[in-house]
Design brief:
With 106 residues, this protein is of the alpha/beta class. The protein is built from five helices and three strands. The chain has a three-stranded parallel β-sheet. α4 links the parallel β2 and β3.
Amino acid sequence: MKTKRAISRRGFLATTGMAQAGSLFAIPDVVGFFQNMSENRTIALVGSGIRGITFLGDNLVENYSDLLEIKGLCDINPERLEYGRKFIEVDCPTFTDHEPMTKRPV
């Protein structure tokens, strides 16, 4: 019998990061993908380091705020988390652990 093992933060980021990166290759026109959505999407951003807030967070808010909404921001470092929230100018719940964020109803 297999025992249920909690996923680590590193494992979560590696798995979801690879899935996200793979989806970008599967969709040749990412801009077209966002523009052709029939309804708004909600997302959660894990990682509020410089890459997370500039490359992804700020870019999504600046270019796609009419199509998506950031509903959660997560980082293990509370100070970096607060800086990231202010930098990308979102008013959403923040989490220092990804598990409560993923279990929270949207």
